[in-house]
Design brief:
The complex is a heterodimer. Chain A is built from 5 helices and 3 strands; from the N terminus they run ααβααββα. Chain A is mainly alpha-helical. Chain B has a domain at 2-78. Classes of the chains: A mainly alpha, B alpha/beta.
């Protein structure tokens, strides 16, 4: 496998965008997002709990997502996140920026 | 196992003490970790393996705290008390040499603040409180300072030009080499102030009392001195060029010969004066 640390640094820079994308499809809680990342990356990339959580808090603080507690009782309560209109916009912007950067990097690398 | 994971989280957050959102954060993370642990168990991992993998997946708690602590701080910045904002603003102004020119700051509480070298030109500061503040070298050009209070402030080498400070108080202030050029000082109080080298040229000093003060090298050139009082004051090398001292009170004052001669020329009543 490639150098793991480097790969994950590059990926980590897109955590906000990845989360926004997943939330575009519906409300999710933290571990659900982690699982999706792991599964959709064909088990290549695992988001650390701390990384994902700080991303969620940042997005929430910026008003891109909102949160609410689920009504589970056993094993701690899940906190669900919902995308806000500005979050959808932010996702579109980030995706555009990424596509642009990717096109340039592919010419250069 | 829930307990073990709970303990893991408690240990992870221990260095951060009881921050406001701690309970919420721990609850949410515990749910995530517990579910991951249960998934790993279902895949056939042993208790220890599952615990190890779960805690390994947690990552760096400091990364998480950077955002958690960041959020409440930002909120606090949005709604601080007004006097606090002003003090902070001026504190920053001092550091960055920014100007607060042409600002409306009436009745501001800027007491006990370090405002050295700050520029308050064209600022409206009527009724503001600068008690005990550090204002060395501060500039107040054409500032509105009516009724402002500078009690005990350090105004060394500060300059007030063309400013209106009627009825302001400079009690106990350090006004060494402070420049009050062409300013309205009617009714200002200078009780126990230090006025060595202070320059009041072309200012309106009507009804101001300099009683009991020692004035070394102060300048009162071209000033309006009607009903201004220097009772029991000590005047050394004080200049009164082009001033009308006919209605100024010098009873009980002590002065050097040069100052006496100048005042004589300014038609002052010096009957009860001691010349040294």
């Amino acid at each position: 496998m490639l150098d793991h640390r480097l790969t994950s640094d590059l990926l980590r820079g897109h955590t906000d965008t990845i989360i926004l994308k997943f939330l575009c499809d519906g409300d999710k809680y933290g571990y659900e997002v982690t699982k999706l990342v792991y599964e959709l990356s064909d088990h290549e990339y695992e988001l650390k709990e701390a990384t994902m959580y700080s991303s969620l808090k940042r997005l929430e603080h910026d008003g891109h997502i909102t949160s609410y507690w689920g009504d589970e009782t056993q094993g701690g309560r899940r906190k669900y996140y919902r995308i806000a209109p500005s979050g959808r916009e932010q996702y579109a912007v980030n995706k555009r920026n990424y596509t642009y950067a990717k096109a340039i990097l592919e010419k250069l690398l | 196992m829930n307990n073990k994971l709970q303990q893991f989280l408690m240990d992870a957050f221990k260095p951060y003490g009881d921050f406001p959102a701690r309970k919420d954060v721990e609850q949410e993370l515990l749910a995530n970790l517990t579910e991951r642990y249960n998934d790993l168990k279902r895949e056939g991992k042993s208790d220890d393996e599952a615990y190890q993998m779960t805690t390994d997946s947690f990552g760096d708690v400091s990364e998480l705290m950077a955002e958690v602590q960041h959020a409440p701080q930002k909120r606090a910045e949005q709604e601080p008390s007004l006097p606090k904002t002003l003090k902070e603003a001026f504190k920053l102004a001092k550091q960055s040499h920014s100007k607060f020119s042409s600002t409306e700051l009436k009745q501001s509480d800027l007491s006990g603040t370090n405002l050295a070298e700050a520029d308050f030109s064209f600022t409206s500061l009527a009724g503001s409180n600068f008690d005990g503040s550090e204002l060395a070298g501060a500039r107040f050009r054409a500032s509105e300072l009516r009724g402002a209070s500078f009690k005990g402030a350090n105004l060394t080498s500060a300059s007030f030009a063309g400013s209106d400070m009627q009825d302001a108080s400079f009690d106990n202030a350090n006004l060494t080499n402070t420049h009050f050029r062409a300013s309205t000082l009617k009714g200002v109080s200078f009780k126990d102030a230090v006025l060595d080298g202070a320059n009041f040229s072309h200012s309106d000093l009507r009804d101001v009392a300099f009683d009991n003060l020692t004035l070394n090298g102060a300048s009162f050139d071209g000033t309006s001195l009607k009903n201004t009082s220097f009772k029991n004051a000590v005047l050394n090398d004080v200049s009164f060029h082009h001033s009308d001292a006919r209605h100024t009170v010098f009873d009980g004052a002590t002065m050097d010969k040069l100052t006496y001669a100048l005042l004589k020329g300014a038609k002052a009543n010096l009957d009860n004066v001691t010349v040294q």
